[in-house]
Amino acid sequence: MNIDSMQFWTFFFLILTFGMYMTIAWRSRVKETKEFYVASQGVPTIANGAAVAADWMSAASFIGMAGMIAFLGSDGSVYLMGWTGGYVLLALLLAPYLRKWGKFTVPEFVGDRYNDTVRVVAAICAIVISFTYVVGQMTGGGVVFARFLGLEAHWAVIVAAVVIFFYAVLGGMKGITYTQVAQYAVLITAYLIPAVAVSQQIGGFPVPQVTYGTILAELDGLRTDFGLDRFTEAFSGRDGGQLDVFLVTLSLMLGTAGLPHVIIRFYTTKTVRGARFSAFWALFFISLLYLTAPAVGAFTKLNLLQGAEGATADELPTWIEPWADAGYVTLNVDDGTIDSVSNVAASGADLIVSNDILVLASPEISGLPAPIIGLMAAGGMAAALSTAAGLLLVISSAASHDIYFRMISKEAASEKTQMMVGRLAMTAAVIIAIFAGLNPPAFVAQVVAFAFGLAASTFFPILILGIFWKKANSKGAAAGMLTGLVFSSSYMIYTLELFGTQANDHILNISPEGIGALGAVLNFAVTVVVSNLTRPPSLEVQEMVESIRYPAPQQLKAAGKI
Amino acid sequence: MSDVTHEGSSGAAPPPENSWRQRYWKKNLRLMVVLLAIWFTVSFGFGIILIEPLNNIVILGFPLGLWFAQQGSIYTFVILILVYALWMDRIDNEFGVSERNGTGEKP
Predict the structure, then answer these.
(1) ipTM metric
(2) What is the pLDDT of residues A83-94, one digit of tens each?
(3) Which keywords does this chain's UniProt record carry (chain B) (predicted)?
(4) pLDDT tens track for A383-424
(5) Does the beta carbon of A408 lie under 8 angstroms from any beta carbon of chain B?
(6) Do B61 and A276 lie within an 8 Å CB cutoff?
(7) All domains of chain A in start order, with CATH
(8) Which of A111, A240, A110, A232 has its CA nearest to residue A517?
(9) In the A/B pair of chains, how many CB contacts fall below 8 A?
(10) Is B62 helix (H, G, I), strand (E, B) or coil?
């Protein structure tokens, strides 16, 4: 593979796709605040679904997930089920009702349904959750620039951040919606072409989901040779066993349903019916990637193990070397041949491979030409950009709408000031994210667990109760949310080396990724108990809760109306 | 199931002319409970709780438990949401509250 031509094609596709996004964002740029956040509810259902999919599928999904599955084996299912199953909850329990309520954001719904105090707590949670997630996008974009453009890792992150910032601030929700449709098209094409090619090459059949099954026996055999657990062995990839897999899956599902940047998308449909179908299209588009990811993980792992088994450093597949130069592959071959492979730097294995490269390397593994590799880089960037833009929008709306104008400046502000505060918040978020993104990647992985655990243990329960239980009141919601927040974050700080604290052993084998599920249960319980002990919400609020249960304001043919 | 139904009907009793709303809501809840039961059975049931026994059955190279955990559950999720959206359309039509022609109010 000629490195120059690969760089040329990477530049070519990155510039081409950026140009496309910028054009779309510029053409649909917005001047009014409402348009900035919800795009006038004029977005077609399928387009909205594709935008949700792009919004949702982050650099972690695109770049990292298949690699994680390659090393986790069967237990990689926590991510596959966790990050898709939440959409069932979102579609059935949240999206249609929040759409009927008709407000911009999660804090806004919470403010109407409960009170302003709960709203500010929710806005702070939304900012923390979204911010931690933005950091992940910047490091993801950094991997792309580091490998394909040969930038030094720190500069790669900064370049990625500047690009993300430039275009998120320019557009608004409307610009972002249509740009995200384009980004979905780019990222799914980039993901599927190499996957189909590798499937054809390894299994002689171009459908990865089928070929995946046919190589499992061989992969298990190879893994046994390397002294690893069988790929298909359940509960071997994670230390916590069955209970932990259960809790992590549940946490990721509840967190997915509670993530503010996903929920905001359902306000952009015209009707409640549109919100239901948007959810369907979103998961449909997401599933194209998620059903392929485990296959890609297994294929690249098979190729890696086949190439590495008994090989000396010089005999390794040629695609490995440039990744080693970029610092994502480490070789510790002293005694000639490679006997062990790992993704953990501290394992001391002969060959250490980062999770993040397996997808990006898949075109090289299957010997695809340089343009496809360039497209892959553009796909990775599309995933990072689209998610980051959605997240920055949540940060800016929470900061300007929910905190600044409620807390700091009580008087009504002009549209212009509102937009300016929103954009300032985005700028601050990007600058802080650059500093966080320059930290070691382990920090980022831990922080993403934080984001999902917090969304699960703060937002999900009070949204569900707010919709389905009229007597849930503001005191209950505030108490529940704070309990969930304090419980989950203290367990995470206890078990993770975050902010310089010491990592302690997991209690009952529950990993910090899984604690959100318990935090959510606790939040539910506290909200119900406190609501029952205090005065129920006003009849007006109860009437509003009643009204979101029916899509149209009145019956058109049968008797009776409101 | 009983929890949800109880919570749903625990508010102030609606005036008699709104009885269609109660029936609409009951149908909505029943559909929701059935679909969520399938959601739980396939993902947590087949993909986690019963994964080890199911792995003894191998179809087209896939141990069945692994297939449910990494593939089957996702197919099921997509179908569940589609069924929900289509079925709610039917319920909306039955009660004359369909928004198919954009009759839903705009905030």
Answers:
(1) 0.87
(2) 999 999 999 999
(3) Membrane, Transmembrane, Transmembrane helix
(4) 888 888 888 888 888 887 777 776 666 566 666 777 778 788
(5) no
(6) no
(7) 3-547 (1.20.1730.10)
(8) A240
(9) 190
(10) strand
